[in-house]
Design a protein that fits this description.
- 47% of the residues lie in helices and 20% in strands.
- By secondary structure, the protein is an alpha+beta fold.
- It has a 4-stranded antiparallel sheet with strand order 1-8-3-6.
- Strand 4 (112-117) and strand 5 form a beta hairpin.
- The mean pLDDT is 79.
Length: 205
């Protein structure tokens, strides 16, 4: 028993509490607690590489970007190490419609615009995205051709995550990322459906 870390022992004590109301709510809650301890142990094992400044940056990422909201500091740290940072100038093309898709992107600063080709090959802007927004996520999900082009509306900084890099993450972190992507896609689908309904109503008048 003496070999069990105090942090783990405290969780076990809670689980064995005679009062059901004081125990963890579920097995998932127990698993989440253990996962958090393992992740914090990972940060401690990194030693001097993890400074207080780094910890503060990780916390800011989680607080500022919804994409990271349910990730621990250690999970964000590991994820950032498999991401690439890109800086684009206003007007730069980030990717073009029809190009091969293997990456998703998170806007750290600045704005981008999403455009699609019209029947006459004219580009029509369909959406603007800002800091904290995610785009190109289907590149992670199915790797199909890009359905639209993305251009920097202002100078911007983005993180890109490659499909292969995500697969290299541990299962818990990757699972949370895929779950967050599913939420993002669901939200975008709902917004698209609402816009389509509005357009249909206006067209029928």
């Amino acid at each position: 028993v003496s070999d069990i870390p105090d942090s783990v022992a405290s969780i076990i004590t809670v689980c064995l509490n005679k009062d059901p109301d004081l125990r963890l709510a579920s097995c998932q809650a127990f698993a989440d607690q253990l996962d958090e301890i393992l992740n914090e142990s990972f940060l401690e094992s990194e030693g001097e590489a993890i400074t207080q400044e780094t910890i503060n940056i990780l916390k800011r990422y989680r607080e500022s970007f919804a994409f990271f909201y349910d990730l621990s500091n250690a999970q964000i740290y590991k994820l950032l190490h498999v991401c690439q940072t890109h800086n684009y100038k206003e007007g730069d093309v980030i990717f073009e419609e029809g190009s091969v898709a293997r990456n998703m992107y998170l806007i750290i600063s600045g704005k981008v615009k999403i455009s699609r080709k019209h029947a006459q090959n004219d580009s029509v802007v369909i959406l603007f995205l800002k800091q904290g927004d995610v785009f190109g996520e289907m590149g992670i999900v199915d790797g199909g051709p890009r359905s639209a082009s993305v251009i920097a509306e202002t100078d911007c900084k983005v993180l890109s995550l490659h499909q292969v890099s995500l697969l290299r993450c541990d299962e818990v972190t990757a699972g949370k990322i895929y779950r967050n992507l599913a939420t993002i896609l669901s939200t975008k689908l709902r917004i698209t459906a609402e816009r389509f309904d509005d357009f249909s109503e206006r067209s029928s008048i």
